[in-house]
Write a structure and sequence with these properties.
- The chain has about 240 residues and is of the alpha/beta class.
- It has helices at about 20-25, 35-40, 50-60, 75-85, 105-115, 125-135, 150-155, 160-170, 185-195, 205, 215-235, and strands at about 10-15, 30-35, 65, 90-95, 120-125, 140-145, 175-180, 200.
- Strands 1-2-3-4-5-6-7-8 form an 8-stranded parallel β-barrel, surrounded by 7 helices.
- Helix 1 (about 20-25) packs parallel to helix 3 and helix 6 runs parallel beside helix 8 (about 160-170).
- The longest helix is centred in the C-terminal third of the chain and has 19 residues, at about 215-235.
- The chain is globular, with a radius of gyration of 20 Å.
């Protein structure tokens, strides 16, 4: 049976709702945080820097990732260097390509070689993992976020791909692999089993950690009671 106490992988909370970040920040199991512009927009964030600084004040010295939002590489670089000044625990998220499909490799290399801690995001192929790994400075910590959940959405098994990504990234020992966009709690144990360094998950998935190891007969009865109580609360009846 899976046991959360035996996990080696680091759990990161993925979100941009400050209340949710505060909730996860008091959980000692959460070792870091990630955000992205889509989550920020969904959470109603209007001032990027103000949100980022508030989040940093909540999480202490744990790592957090903030993403650039430009599409031009020169502008991406300006944003990345500014974001990097917000805290020593900040990873700057750089997308694997711009919207034209142009590889961000030269920018990744420039930033990494000048000491910017990156989180290269929206990665979906092993060729991309290999290309990014080759651009990272050996002495600077970095993250590669492979969107295993989105890979699974296409009908492909992400587990062997993630295992191979771990192998490729051994060329840069300070680089860590994130299993991004998990779809269920089981993904935490799958990611751990192949040696992923980090998994980042939304609060609704992380809250399911309390279910790990739950007796299935008890869980079955809980489910029956849920259906019964909801039907009763709705006042359903069938005339017979």
């Amino acid at each position: 049976m899976n046991d959360i106490n035996k996990l080696k992988i680091k759990l990161f909370a993925d979100g941009a709702d400050l209340a949710g970040i505060k909730e996860m920040a008091v959980n000692p199991m959460i070792k870091g945080f990630t955000t992205n512009p889509t989550l920020m927009r969904k959470a109603g964030v209007t001032d990027y820097k103000t949100f980022a600084l508030e989040a940093l004040s909540v999480i202490g010295d744990r790592p957090i990732s903030f993403e650039v939002f430009a599409d031009d590489f020169d502008e991406m670089e300006k944003q990345a260097r500014e974001i990097a000044t917000w805290g020593k625990n900040v990873n700057v998220k750089i997308p694997i390509t711009n919207t034209k499909g142009e590889f961000s490799g030269p920018l990744i290399e420039r930033l990494s070689r000048t000491g910017v801690q990156l989180n290269v995001t929206a990665v979906m192929t092993l060729n991309q993992v290999e290309s990014i790994t080759g651009k990272l400075a050996s002495e600077i910590p970095a993250i590669i976020s492979v969107f295993a959940g989105r890979i699974a959405d296409t009908g492909r098994d992400p587990v062997p791909m993630m295992a191979e990504a771990v192998r490729i990234m051994k060329a840069k020992p300070k680089a860590e692999l994130i299993w991004a966009s998990p779809r269920e709690l089981l993904n935490v144990f799958q990611a751990d089993s192949v040696g992923c360094h980090i998994i980042t998950a939304t609060n609704d998935i992380l809250k399911k950690l309390s279910l790990v190891g739950k007796d299935l007969d008890a869980y079955s009865l809980d489910t029956v009671k849920m259906f019964y109580n909801d039907a009763s609360a709705a006042g359903y009846s069938i005339d017979i």
